[in-house]
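Please check our next protein.
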Amino acid sequence: MPFQPTDFAVNQYRIALREGYLYIGAENDAANAAAVGMTSGGITISLNPDYVNIEVDQLHSPLDMIPGSIGGTIETRLVELSIWHLALALGLPKDAVAGSSVLKVYYSYLAKLNNFHSVKVETLRPMTASDDATGGGVRTFEFPRVKVTSPGEFYAMSRSDPTTLPVTIQILGYWNETDSEEIFFEVKDDDDWSYISFWG
């Protein structure tokens, strides 16, 4: 019997992407986010739902489970120790970088560590039958509301290899007034948009 795609184990709450470009911007403005550089070793998007049991007196087990809350993370490594990369890895806001070579770590910037941001990730999507030989096109993920958290580890710079900085970004929901939905991120394959909301 031939191997079927349904034989694969699927985790709908964990998405592994290939290397790509990372952008960061103001809250709910991912389309205008500033590029901070390329990633190394791929990008992992994880959603972590917390379920609440619905119980009744007549049953010894839960009647149902509903999502009570949901969180998520974007985990990756930024290539090379540029000022932009260092600022993002530290969770500093975009305006902490003056020009392209000065990073100002003042109290006023550290006080903004809890500010909300938006993030955009661009990566190549797998090729399909309709694609030509030039490639599979671009897949874009836009996260309207996130917080950048400080990574737990840093690595020394090397003369022979690029320095990589681990970065963790917390995904938060953003309330979309138009659709009355809490959106976590939007996905674009070239001109095809879809979104993933709290209630699926």
Summary: The helical segments are 83-90, 107-110.
